[in-house]
Design brief:
The complex is a heterodimer of chains A (about 240) and B (about 260). Chain A has about 240 residues and is α+β, with helices and mostly antiparallel strands. Chain A has three domains: about 45 residues, Beta Barrel (OB fold (Dihydrolipoamide Acetyltransferase, E2P)); about 80 residues, Nucleic acid-binding proteins (OB fold (Dihydrolipoamide Acetyltransferase, E2P)); about 90 residues, Ribosomal Protein S8, Chain: A, domain 1 (2-Layer Sandwich), CATH 3.30.1370. Chain A contains seven helices and 16 strands. Chain A starts with a strand and ends with a helix. By secondary structure, chain B is an alpha+beta fold. Chain B contains six helices and 13 strands. In chain B, the strands form three sheets. Chain B has a five-stranded mixed sheet with strand order 3-4-5-7-6. In chain B, strands 8, 9, 10, 11 and 12 form a five-stranded antiparallel sheet that branches. Classes of the chains: A alpha+beta (about 240), B alpha+beta (about 260). Strand 1 of chain A pairs antiparallel with strand 13 of chain B, so a sheet runs across the interface.
Chain lengths: ~240, ~260
């Protein structure tokens, strides 16, 4: 299967076939144009994957949220989107009393939740009533650009499986771009660095091979060597660039 | 010495130092060496602010502006939110050091007007209905001003919006045309703006839809038509540079095809 990878900006002409229009595009005068700044993929359907942007909740997504408020019968959850998530008391796996809500989940706690419904006005309802869902009590949660989640997971989960294998960490990637890692500190560090590399370079082809190589190299390095390497990689700030013209 | 000090302090005397140049155009060449239909040099840098969702630094001759875009995000204050679409907010601000004589900081009549027209220049291209109950905030800071800051601001803001991943119909490009010494010129600089006969900032999409048109001074209807054509050419030129700047941010070699 061959895929064209091309950067496009909003307003770029993509195709004359309106039926191919998918996410990240719009149709005008019987032509398909790009609506975002991103990478176009012409695989059956034409879609443009944005290089940045906020997470927009969809039903059945699994997200990692942080409780920001406990109200009378709802937990209000930050799901890294313009819209807050609502977790109703009845969606908690156990029957609990209104007065005791903050005993189970308090402000600042992290949860893995399922988006059970999103209505027209973007009211987002969450649930914890599912085998896969739970409160996050250990490990580390990091954030990546939501539009890069599919690249991080890889085709049929290949990238994430490789990452889990190589680092020995347990990794869960939520659709809203939060990643939950558990494992030995040293291994989690390595996984975090690798994920950052994937995020920064996901638009450059040959990603998988580069990541395999990166992991191999990193695992061979001692702590001292690694510190030296990161210092070398640090680039100058924008001010330097602006000033030296 | 005291005498000199007094002269400079006196506003009226000071104006004598800034006299109108005798000719703004000589042999078809402008004061800064440009031809009538030539833009000032442009420099663009995308993604200069890490905290913002999208950002852009834009130089338009001696103008230096920086644009930051946040959102879509929650609307504060709440009552501003629209239930079916995003609200776009645009804040244009001039730094106190952006002009020779210190500009009193804070919003004033002019910056409120510029904010309003710039917002309206960008709103038609943004797919606001994709994000009900949210806000898209655009901030434009003028670091150095030299006539044409609103057009520079719009150019910067439209790149910053794209950088933030906000869905748009297209970019918006803006530049001004004006009349000095009875000649139509593109993209006026400070002297031409101060002593010229007309100044007309225009913003448009690459396919020629005009989203902003203001005019200060007088133009005949023929001059207006000719000026519009000049601005169109100028905007297309800017659109090319805007596109190049966006692509450059991710230029680290994207091969045309890959097997991933």
């Amino acid at each position: 299967m061959k895929m064209d990878k091309k950067l496009v900006i909003p307003g770029d002409f993509l195709s004359d076939d309106v039926k191919l229009a998918d996410e990240g595009t719009y149709v005008e005068d019987g032509k398909v144009f790009s609506s975002v700044f991103g990478i176009v993929s012409m695989n059956k359907q034409i879609r443009v994957v944005p290089l940045s942007g906020k997470y927009i909740p969809k039903r059945d997504d699994i997200v990692i949220g942080i409780i920001t408020e406990v109200s009378f019968s709802n937990w209000i959850v930050d799901i890294r989107s313009p819209y807050e998530g609502l977790l109703h008391i009845s969606e908690f796996p156990r029957r609990i009393d209104n007065a005791e809500m903050s005993k189970y989940l308090n402000v600042g706690d992290s949860i893995m939740a399922l988006v059970s419904d999103v209505d027209e006005s973007m009211k987002v309802e969450l649930t914890l009533n599912d085998q896969r869902l739970r409160q996050i009590k250990d490990g580390r949660v990091i954030e990546v650009t939501p539009s890069k989640v599919p690249r991080l997971i890889g085709r049929n989960g290949s990238m994430i499986a490789m990452l889990k294998n190589e680092t020995g960490c347990n990794i869960f990637i939520a659709q809203n771009g939060r990643v939950w890692l558990t494992g030995k500190d040293k291994n989690v560090d390595l996984a975090v660095r690798t994920i950052q590399k994937i995020e920064n370079e996901s638009h450059i082809s040959g990603l998988t091979e580069r990541i395999v190589k990166f992991l191999k190299e990193e695992k061979g390095l001692t702590v001292k060597e690694r510190v030296k390497k990161t210092e070398e990689e640090k680039s100058g700030g924008i001010l330097d660039e602006l000033l030296d013209k | 010495m005291i005498c000199v000090y007094e002269i400079i302090k006196n506003e009226e005397e000071k104006r004598k130092f800034m006299v109108k140049p005798e000719k703004l155009i000589e042999n078809g060449i402008r004061l800064d060496g440009r031809k009538p239909d030539e833009l000032r040099p442009i420099k663009i840098k995308v993604g200069v602010l890490n905290r913002a969702d999208g950002s852009c630094y834009f130089e338009f001759g001696a103008n230096k502006v920086i644009a930051a875009v946040y959102g879509p995000r929650e609307v504060h204050p709440r009552h501003m939110q629209k239930s079916t679409s995003a609200v776009v907010r645009y804040k244009y601000n001039m730094a106190s050091f952006s002009v020779e004589e210190r500009k009193r900081p804070g919003p004033d009549r002019r910056s409120i007007e510029v904010s309003k027209v710039s917002r309206e220049a960008l709103e038609p291209v943004i797919f606001q209905e994709y994000f009900p109950r949210s806000a898209i905030d655009i901030f434009v800071e003028v670091l150095q001003a030299d006539a044409g800051t609103r057009t520079a601001g719009i150019n910067a803001a439209s790149i910053a919006l794209a950088d933030a991943g906000i869905p748009m119909k297209s970019l918006v490009s803006a530049c001004a045309v004006g009349k000095v010494d009875d000649t139509l010129v593109l993209d006026l600089n400070k002297d031409e703006d101060n002593y010229g006969q007309a100044d007309m900032p225009i913003a448009m999409t690459p396919d020629g839809k005009i989203t902003l048109l203001q005019m200060d001074g007088h133009l005949s209807s023929d001059e207006f038509k000719e000026g519009l054509e000049m601005a169109k050419k100028g905007c297309l030129e800017i659109a090319q540079l805007q596109r190049a700047a966006l692509l450059e941010k991710y230029s680290s070699k994207i091969e045309g095809e890959s097997n991933e």
